[in-house]
Amino acid sequence: MRKTLIIAVLLLIVLPTLGACAKASGVQITYIFYDGLVPRAESDEYVEITNLGDQAQDLAHWMLMDISEGYPSFTFPAYILAPGETIRVYTNECHPEWGGFSFEYGRAIWNNSEPDVAVLYNNQGEEVSQRSY
Ligand SMILES: [Ca+2]
Fold first, then answer.
1. Distance 81 CA to ligand 1 centre (A)
2. How close is the Cα of 73 to the center of ligand 1, in Å?
3. How far is the CA of 60 from the centre of ligand 1 (A)?
4. Strand boundaries in the chain, DSSP class E
5. What is the pLDDT of residues 56-69, one digit of tens each?
6. pTM for this structure?
7. pLDDT (0 to 100) of residue 123
């Protein structure tokens, strides 16, 4: 009985802390379109980033990188990502309707046969999200 009470009290202390941690990383890499339709250069590849949290997030100085190769990387300008909003970082195309972000990279970035890993870092250089495909 006493043990149960202690466990219950511990859970009450620990659970809200876990919830807070999960909420802090509301911006996530949600999709990687790795197999571009444009022959060879695959300039239409993109990485989709969504704000799954409930607070707007300024992406200034946040960075997206292919960590499998260590390059290329894209550093965001100031941009307020609203809750529920999705943007895309294209390999080498500009689509204003998705935020207009591009690596401006002349070759395909995301390997079609051996999956790469994309990582998103915040302006402190801390990993916020990681995704493969
Ligand atoms: Ca590709």
1. 26
2. 16
3. 27
4. 27-33, 46-51, 57-58, 63-66, 73-75, 80-81, 86-90, 101-102, 118-121, 127-131
5. 999 999 999 999 99
6. 0.81
7. 97
